[in-house]
Amino acid sequence: MDYLSRIKSTVVDTVSNLSSVLTGNPLSGQYEMGAYLGSYGPCLLWKMFQATKRSTREEACVFLLEKKSLDRYPKAEREFALTMLKRGVAGLTRLRHPAILTVSHPLEESRESLAFATEACFCSLANIVATERPASPNVEIPEAVREYKLHEVEIKYGLAQVSEALAFLHQAKLVHGNVCPESIVINKKGAWKLAGFEQCKTLTEETARYSFDSTSPTATLPNYEYIAPECALQEMCWPASDMYSLGVLVYAVHMNGITPYSTRGSFETLKTCLEQMKNFPKAKLQTLPQGAREYVKLLLSFNPQLRPDAHQFGKLPYLEDVGVKTLRDLDSLYQLDKVAKSHIYKGLPPIVEKLPKRINLYRVLPCIAGEYVNAEMVPFVLPTVLIIAEMSSPEEFGSSVLPELQKVFLYTQPVHIMYLLLQKMDLLISRCPPEAVRDHLLSMVYRALECNAQQIQELCLNTIPNFAQLVEYGSMKNHLLPRIKKLCISTSLTSTRVGCLVCMGKILEHLDKWVVLDDIIAWLPEVKSRDSAVLMAILGVYKISLTHQKLGITKEILACKVIPFLVPLSIEGSLNLTQFNQVIALVKEMISQVEVEHRTKLEQTDTLVAEKAPVKTVKSPSADELMSELTVSVTTVKPPENGLKNLSLEEKQRLARQEESMRLFEGQAPLASRIDGRPARLGAQKLTTTPKDLTTSLLNSNLMNLENKTNNLKHNLQDQQQPFQTPNYNIDTSSLMSPTSPSNVYRWGTQNSLSNLNQNLASDWSVAQSAVTNAPSGGGWEESWGDWSTSTTGASKGVKNANVDLSEFDTLMSFDNRGPKKDILKRNRN
């Protein structure tokens, strides 16, 4: 912990000191400074900082040299060192090549510092490969740089890039003069870029003079471990001198910074070591890779003419690695057409799997991401991108892969793009942040459900449950579910319909109970297909909804909607025995749940009623008990007093007679009726009905019977074909008086009914007597009324002498003013 704290405090101090140093430098107004990256240059005097250009927000790297770091030298030497350092930056700014570090802002000088800006960088090769030369004082190397390990492909391709830069210089009649780890910068993409042109020489013919003062400051001298023998011993240099330095570099990067010899900064020791290089021992080369030993020996030859040139070095079999070739092809993509590019992209996936993540993220991915703008080429590069995404962490994916990949999510054509993305949906969900899933992946899923390709639709349905928990409630209810339901109804493919139902079943646990009931359970009957697979999928949705502890179906929905829907499905001809048993088992489970829940509810209701009303209540009778215990309830109905003034004299007389009849009836004993052969218990039950005017209904019934008889009588009197018969006066009054009569059972118990009944019976009797008394002699009466002697006693012979009360006719005539009935009554009265 103390060590980490020391690193943290050192970095903080460095950044704070940087702010104060860079304040007076013109570069500070154009770049925002960031974290410390590493060091570079002679004696690693240049400090590298992450930066961002203020105007374009482009990533960059600022190289800063504090002049106080040269205070240990005398003034003259300090000025000479500053001149050499400025010369190196000027040469770097002037040269332009893909393998040479690109300067984005030239050198700026202030009173306290020198600074210039380049492309975004990671560190220098010297920060990764150990070196014996002193590093910048009071600056710790970042942890990310210390843990950086070079991959074999990185080394090979880096050396190939350095050889390309040297070939460019040699073609321009320039000799670098100091090829070493301190003069090589690794940019953010992992590419090796040549820099450090402080010792650069211009060739006059084929050679150039290479002189230096060994007593000069170390910052002005070349690296003794990498200098060629002719430069140190003969003070001459030519392009082969750089190739010797490149040979030492190949040896050092494979040996973690150890060079073939160590001078420890002594020029005399250097001369001795160079003399020994005439007979370089092969034992020192045994630790190198098998393919590099022979060529390193040639590069370290004492004779410059035996060394390969830069072009020959770039074509060595040692560098003809598949990974190196792939990286070279990617760097030259801009020169190829679509067909050639597609061949390269098709071969990338197996190669990318063998490359380190760092190369894939920062070298391969930026090259192929440029094809996102061309939809036709996206299916060729997308498999490689997904492999790189699988290698990366969520943080690396979010910073390096996702920003450019968002463009691909919008494509619907060609369908291969959507198919590849849906196949790796699990990977994308695990790498994307939740907001990216909602904003980008979910929109792509919507488009996949609405496309016309069956494979895309089914693949999409299989992937939806994997990220359903990340979908917001509103998006799930208003966007995702409606699209799934629409696809299920509209598709003609059974497999797609089953996929929709299975998808719904899997996402039920992520839904609200009432969303399931309202949007899914209520919708399932709309699925008209009766294939066995579809029915089993529907059954699965019902079962999950019923048994899941978070969900459940109410007994009302089960009883009214679900069970009536499932029972007919159980007898579908497409179901086999096993499927039938599953349907029946679920129906039984639902019925059992309805039974248990409703019985529990009723028991609770009875308990609450008993607690709130402890008084004994009358149990509601059954239908049989109600019919067996019918009784007569007699109430007195009084006419409204306010209406008496408007009655006529005849109406008042009628009301008086009704009241008198009622008083007589009240003095009689109550009547007992029999229902189904059993005596009814009076007073057990009271039937309360709304009082109705039974007088009119009974009068109309009697008049109808009387009218029929009178019509028959007139007809027979005209024909006179039958002998006179005694009329039958045995009227069955028991049916009229019984409270169980169909026409009177619900009317019995009113005041007016009994009074009117007596009056009607008396009226019928008087009419019959009047008809007999006034009938003419002859056989017509016998034909009309039948044989009187068969139904009457001898008392009927004295009917003619009986006194007839004509007031009854008047009463009957006052009730009905219709023409036919009134004429009949008038004739009979006469």
From TrEMBL:
Gene3D superfamilies: Leucine-rich Repeat Variant, Phosphorylase Kinase, domain 1, Transferase(Phosphotransferase) domain 1. It holds the Pfam family Pkinase. One of its GO terms (molecular function) is ATP binding. Residues 773-799 are annotated as: Disordered. SUPFAM superfamilies: ARM repeat (SSF48371), Protein kinase-like (PK-like) (SSF56112). Residues 31-319 form the Protein kinase domain. It comes from the Eukaryota. InterPro entries: ARM-like, ARM-type_fold, CIK-Related_Protein, Kinase-like_dom_sf, Prot_kinase_dom. Belongs to the protein kinase superfamily. PANTHER family: SCY1-LIKE PROTEIN 2 (PTHR12984:SF6), SCY1-RELATED S/T PROTEIN KINASE-LIKE (PTHR12984). This is Protein kinase domain-containing protein. It comes from Varroa destructor. The lineage of its organism: Eukaryota, Metazoa, Ecdysozoa, Arthropoda, Chelicerata.
